[in-house]
Amino acid sequence: MAYVSKEVVKNAREALKVVNKKYNMKTSLRVDNHTALHCTIISGSIDFGFTSGDINHYWIDTDTRLSPIAKEYLEEVNKVLHAEHWDKSDIQSDYFHCAFYVYIRVGRWDKHYILSSKDAGQEE
């Protein structure tokens, strides 16, 4: 059964702080019903080409909407979110068994992503 522990969330938040500082980004991390880890990208210096929408974490590298720097950032975020993840699912037999579910989103439905003018990775 999928379950996100407090320790997983704590470790993911600490790792996301490092990635966000590198790219000058701001994210929100929350747990939904103890089974899903939701990462929302709130603001930053990377232009995603849209201000609100879901990211399919399985197909980041082939998403045509994203710039190379956006793909690079999202791959690092995805790696952080899956650091303590395991998946023993078998789709052919309709058997789903994983540590927890992961969702990445740019902006929210009521608060869109805010693009700042500062360049990605630029030091203050």
Q: Main attributes?
A:
single chain; 124 residues; alpha/beta; 2 helices; 5 strands; disordered C terminus
Structure, explained:
The chain is of the alpha/beta class. It is 26% helix and 23% strand. The protein is built from two helices and five strands. Strands 1, 2, 3, 4 and 5 form a five-stranded mixed sheet that branches. The longest helix has 18 residues, at 6-23. It is globular and about 45 Å long. Mean pLDDT is 89; it is low at 120-124.
What is the share of helical residues?
25-40%
Q: What's the helix count? A: 2
Query: What Rg, in angstroms, do the CA atoms define?
Result: 15 Å
Taken in chain order, the helices and strands follow as HEEEHEE
Mean pLDDT: 89
Spatial separation of the terminal alpha carbons: 44 Å
Structural class: alpha/beta
Strand tally is 5
Shape: globular
Outline:
The protein is of the alpha/beta class.
